[in-house]
Amino acid sequence: MSISTHLIAPRLNAVFLHVQDLKRSAAWYHQLLQLPFDSSLITSPVYNVPLQGPTSLTLDDHTNDPLYQHQPSPHALFNFYTTDIDASYQFVLSLQTSIIRDIERFDDFAYFTFADPDGNVLMLCTG
Questions:
Q1: Residue 58: CB partners within 8 Å, gap ≥ 6?
Q2: Mean pLDDT of the 7-20 span
Q3: pTM (2 decimals)?
Q4: Non-local CB neighbours of 101 within 8 Å, separated by 6+ positions
Q5: Contact 42/29 with Cβ under 8 angstroms?
């Protein structure tokens, strides 16, 4: 069955991540993903982090919502992929990022969780 036959397509289009300071968060995600960064391209209320693949990561600072109160989830919201969990763990540590859960290993799969500057919990996985 093709996507066009579905009223709602069975794919993720974008992940919205709620942040408090859009430029600070955009800079952090660019550093994490080792992407070039130009702060002049960041304009409130949203910014799309340039990712590979069809799903986008949209940072949202809620400047258009005066009632918004940031409450990050204590659980991982999504995961990034790595082929080298140990080197990635050391890299994330070098960013002085809070590690939530150290590396867990299961056969050929490994992951760890960490927090972005807004307390959003993210996961890094090998598979």
A1: 14, 15, 16, 17, 46, 47, 48, 49
A2: 92
A3: 0.91
A4: 112, 113
A5: no
Place of tokens 């927090």: 115
Q: Look at residue 4 and give its three-state secondary structure.
A: helix
CA dihedral defined by 40, 54, 124, 75, rounded to 10 degrees? 90
Q: Alpha helices, DSSP H only, in the chain?
A: 22-32, 85-94
- Which is nearest to 15 in space by CA: 60, 61, 62? 60
* Cβ atoms of 118 and 19 closer than 8 Å: yes
Q: Give strand pairing partners of 113.
A: 101, 123
Question: What one-letter code names the amino acid at 30?
Answer: H
Reported as a single tens digit per residue, the pLDDT across 15-49 is: 999 999 999 999 999 999 999 999 999 999 999 99
Q: Which residues contact 118 (CB under 8 A, 6 or more apart)?
A: 18, 19, 20, 21, 25, 70, 72
